[in-house]
Amino acid sequence: MAYAIKCYFSEETATPIRRIWKDLADSGLAEFLKQSGSRPGITLGTWENAPEGDLIGLAGAFAEVCHEVPRVLTYGLATFPTDPAHVFLGVVPSDGLLGFHKRFHALDPRLSAACSLYYQPGSWVPHSTLAIRCNPKYISKIMERCLAYETRMEARIDSIGVVEIGTARQISDTVFHSIFMDEAENSL
């Protein structure tokens, strides 16, 4: 079974992304995120073959030891050249966010080594997904619909959890009891 560890945005800051998901689903262009019950956020890592319990433990341990949670600033739309297609909000790779990601992976080097190369420190492209599993011929229509909304926003991470890849079934969710970093520290 494949899993992801994802940081979820607060309900307030997730609302604009949920509006985009709804619009894309209602238009028939990208339905999975809305229909699956996904939650807006950013993924810290994905694993093809890691024990579910180990990942739940890692997410919970990180929530316990993390003393500062960065703000997440998006800068606009982007896409990965995949088939099926994937459209996302690009996330500013601030020092605070990159350090947060690096500390997450340092917590359990064994699990980090088993994580997808795309999510390793130094290779990670932080993003928040808007459309996934889409026909590539609809990319321009998806992006056009997304541009009807503000795509530069600030989001707050409030929890971390394990998600089953493929179904988006949420397996765990642990709230951070941390303070938020100063905006100056989180900027480039």
Structural write-up:
The protein is an alpha+beta fold and 188 residues long. Helices cover 35% and strands 30% of the residues. It has one domain (3-186): Alpha-Beta Complex (Cyclic Phosphodiesterase, Chain: A). It is built from seven helices and nine strands, in the order E-H-H-E-H-E-E-E-H-H-E-H-E-E-E-H. The termini are far apart. 37% of the residues are buried.
Rg, Å, rounded: 16 Å
Helix content: 25-40%
Second-tier CATH architecture = Alpha-Beta Complex
Order of helices and strands: EHHEHEEEHHEHEEEH
Mean pLDDT: 92
Question: What is the CATH T-level topology?
Answer: Cyclic Phosphodiesterase, Chain: A
- Can you count the beta strands? 9
- Major sheet summary line: 7 strands, antiparallel
Task: Sum up the structure in keywords.
188 residues; two-stranded parallel ribbon; Cyclic Phosphodiesterase, Chain: A; 7 helices; disordered C terminus; globular; alpha+beta
Q: Can you give me a brief rundown of this structure?
A:
The protein has 188 residues and is of the alpha+beta class. It contains seven helices and nine strands, in the order βααβαβββααβαβββα. It has helices spanning 11-26, 32-36, 52-65, 95-106, 109-114, 139-146, 183-186; strands at 3-9, 41-47, 68-69, 71-80, 85-91, 127-134, 154-164, 174-175, 179-180.
Write the layout of secondary structure elements.
Elements: E1 3-9, H1 11-26, H2 32-36, E2 41-47, H3 52-65, E3 68-69, E4 71-80, E5 85-91, H4 95-106, H5 109-114, E6 127-134, H6 139-146, E7 154-164, E8 174-175, E9 179-180, H7 183-186
Parallel strand pairs: 3-9
Antiparallel strand pairs: 1-2, 1-7, 4-5, 4-7, 5-6, 7-8
